[in-house]
């Protein structure tokens, strides 16, 4: 396996997911590691209605925004690996010992066919590699609803995701870490928490690569 990874690195040198600099090993380059908009202290845990508790590593701005948009819309699936590492670090710091199962917020089948991958699933698989576990598919998106990015009003964002997810795995009694790429208003995560808890989950906490600053939620919701 190490030989295979070495050959891949020679053929496709790993690059920093933020600046694109070629590196000897996969991950974030030292300059970006130093300059990223890290979320300080208690602000790294976003709490909200519906039992939302979401840990985030960095603010959704500048190079972080650019990287996540490339992951979601420009086919840059390879950057999910280092971004998942960021998420794993943050989730372990905020929720160590609070979850025994990892799952993700799924995209619809239509978007999966168009995109070729589910970015939240890739992030979940990357994070889980650092814990030597596998994520479990517990949710399915049954409705290809309007993208949240096109809706600015908070109430409308909540209404747009209501009833679009259903439980597909055994969540009963599990303490779940639910992973997504970004927490903007929290509407999508809150709806997924509701579905998982109604299917028997004991507890659901959430992890995202980035959080939108509360004062910038409207701006982030337009992207």
Strand content: 15-25%
User: Between the first and last Cα atoms, what is the distance in angstroms?
Assistant: 39 Å
What summary fits the major beta sheet? 5 strands, mixed
Kindly state the number of beta strands. 7
Rg estimate, integer Å: 17 Å
Helix amount: 25-40%
What is the number of helices? Answer: 9
Q: Could you say which structural class the secondary elements and strand pairing correspond to?
A: alpha/beta
Walk me through what this model shows.
This protein has about 220 residues and is α/β, with parallel strands linked by helices. It is built from nine helices and seven strands. It has helices spanning about 1-10, 30-35, 60-75, 80-95, 110-115, 120-130, 155-160, 185-200, 215-220, and strands spanning about 45-50, 50-60, 100-105, 140, 165, 175-185, 205-210. The strands form two sheets. A five-stranded mixed β-sheet has the order 1-2-7-6-3, with helices on both faces. Strands 4-5 form a two-stranded antiparallel ribbon. Strand 6 (about 175-185), helix 8 (about 185-200) and strand 7 form a beta-alpha-beta unit. Helix 4 (about 80-95) packs across helix 6. The longest helix is centred in the middle third of the chain and has 16 residues, at about 80-95. It is globular, with a radius of gyration of 17 Å. It starts with a helix and ends with a helix. About 40% of the residues are buried.
């Amino acid at each position: 396996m190490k030989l295979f990874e070495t050959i891949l690195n020679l053929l496709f040198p790993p690059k920093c997911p933020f600046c694109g600099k070629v590196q000897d090993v996969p991950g974030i380059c030292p300059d970006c590691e130093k300059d990223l908009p890290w979320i300080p202290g208690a602000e790294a845990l976003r709490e909200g209605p519906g039992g939302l508790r979401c840990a985030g590593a960095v603010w959704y701005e500048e190079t972080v925004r650019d990287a996540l948009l490339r992951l979601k819309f420009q086919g840059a699936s390879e950057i999910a690996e280092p971004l998942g590492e960021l998420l794993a670090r943050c989730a372990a710091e905020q929720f160590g010992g609070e979850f025994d199962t990892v799952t993700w917020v799924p995209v619809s089948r239509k978007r999966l066919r168009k995109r070729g991958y589910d970015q939240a699933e890739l992030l979940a698989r990357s994070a889980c590699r650092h814990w030597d576990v596998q994520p479990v598919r517990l949710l399915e998106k049954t409705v290809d609803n309007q993208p949240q990015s096109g809706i600015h009003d908070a109430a409308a964002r909540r209404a747009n995701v209501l009833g679009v997810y259903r439980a597909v795995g055994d969540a009963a009694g599990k303490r779940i870490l639910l992973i997504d790429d970004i927490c903007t208003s929290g509407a999508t995560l809150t709806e997924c928490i509701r579905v998982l808890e109604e299917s028997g989950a004991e507890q659901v906490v959430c992890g995202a690569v980035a959080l939108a600053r509360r004062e910038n939620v409207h701006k982030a919701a337009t992207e």
